[in-house]
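Appendix B, Record 12. Input sequence as logged:
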Amino acid sequence: MKISLKDGSEKIYESAMTIYEIAADISEGLARMACAGEIDGEVADLRTVVDRDCQINILTFNDEKGKAVYWHTTSHVLAQAVKRLYPNAKLTIGPSIEKGFYYDFECDPFSREDLDKIEAEMKKIIKENAPLEKFTLPREEAIKFMQEKDEPYKVELIRELPLDAEISFYSQGDFVDLCAGPHLMKTGQIKAFKLISSSGAYWRGKSENQTLTRVYGISFVKKQELEEYIVYLEEIKKRDHNKLGREMGLFTTVDVIGQGLPLFLPKGTKIIQTLQRWIEDEEEKLGYMRTKTPLMAKKDLYIISDHWHHYKEGMFVLGNEEDENAEVFALRPMTCPFQYYVYKESPKSYRDLPCRYGETSTIFRNEDSGEMHGLTRVRQFTISEGHLIVRPDQIEEEFKGCLELAVRCMRTLGLEEDVTYRFSKWDPNNKSKYLGEEEDWERTQDKVREILHHLNLDFTEEEGEAAFYGPKLDIQAKNVYGKEDTMITIQLDFALAERFDMSYIDSDGSKKRPFIIHRTSIGCYERTLAWLIEKYAGNFPTWLCPEQVRVLPISEKYHDYAKKVEEKLKENSLLCTVDERSEKIGYKIRQARLDRVPYMLIVGQMEEEEGRVSVRSRYKGDEGSTDLNAFIDDISREIRIKEIRKIEVEDKEAK
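Logged structural output:
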């Protein structure tokens, strides 16, 4: 048989061989490093026998698919250790993920001490170096096998498999798990691992199902790599907005108010206010008309929009639905239906379009309690929501304008390198799922693609992921832990103008349906703030800081001059305070750094006599003495152009 290798070379073998044997024939070192193999692109165990002409690729830990196999096997070692220590724990699933693996168990929550015990047992299992061996069973035997082991979740999974599916298991010593694989050859191949954390989860991710205990872990082929990863984890934990935002006094949560309902404290509120004013100004420059619409509406509105049928479970409903005579309301999950009635308030001509409506909207989503986290998953949030009502010939230009605004906002915030673009298209093989004509879909998608290329944006295309009423573009961002969320969406809509009977009079006097573009400039303000906290570790660009300058008199004698400096700064719209405490100047400087204030103005006798200030900044440290007016000019320009200054000095105290 002829084996084609990744580098383009070929090997000829007279008889069948396992992937491992082929790896060893190539290089003993490669065989030692091998985690799995690929046969014509399909990942397989190293024990898999190859008996035909094909392309073989040997996967190591340096390959993403090799890592996935390595981490998947480590999750099985975790499951085996848990079953040894907690025999009554029920197994569910244990996949590899982007960074490591997890396994979900039905059992009591684990403490850190419990995880340490499990780690110790895992080390024993790894030392046993048990082979991982695959076997299959007929459906009924497989079900009986798992029933005898009292593993109800595995029984449920087997019953859901297609009738013709292969039902495979992997054994390692005294442990067996339902699994399609592939896996490492032996447990001893795992060289270094760590159980990172334990948390709650729901079976199949649904809150109405059984609560499970999820254990996260990571493993590496070298101990040094694990040690470096643990250091990395400690660093990103410091940036976690849910921790850092609270430490900085930006927001808090209170049990009696409720989960997913953050309280913004004065500093956090000032940042949100700065962002909102900036976005509203940017939108108004582009011709957006501001609206202010109700926070709730009768269910009738949502029946027209179809949200009542598709999203009712995610809405907060007010009133007795069982009483036919009662008015039932719901808090709004989005603003679009309200702005459609703003459009319909007066007749429109083709000359009136496009109509660009913008609103800083507070909206509500009934998120599951298990989904809530900090500012990224909340039940009430504020969004820069907008809808453009356009003629067909305006779609391209208006979509481009929406995207250019979003890209400009990301660039201003310093996030342009941290986001990705995902273009969701229709599935032409499943046309019945979508509204509108094929010609409209294809033409519009081609135009969106051209716009993305014109703006030099890298993007992925996801066929079949579009909403039923039009294609969309999502701007995605990841938090410090690598979890991806949507930051901004620009959505084309071929349907809702029909549902809401929206129209305009065209140049020939005929009545036409407009198209709608749903869009946001910056997305949800709460989520954007979360990303900014993590991006800058709390050291926001000066224009976003809730306190931009702190005046530090070296003693009480200079408080009057410090107050004059503060007054002059405030006259120029700078956010500043005076530290009037009877503390040494070194202590005041240290506290200002801990509070992440970008500029400190130190004032004493010389500064008062000369009308100057001594400047210390987070960017360069001691910047020397300068005229107060010159400092005001410099910082005002920095704020006006929204400059992101580079931090050139290390501030260990603020870390």
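The mean pLDDT is 93.
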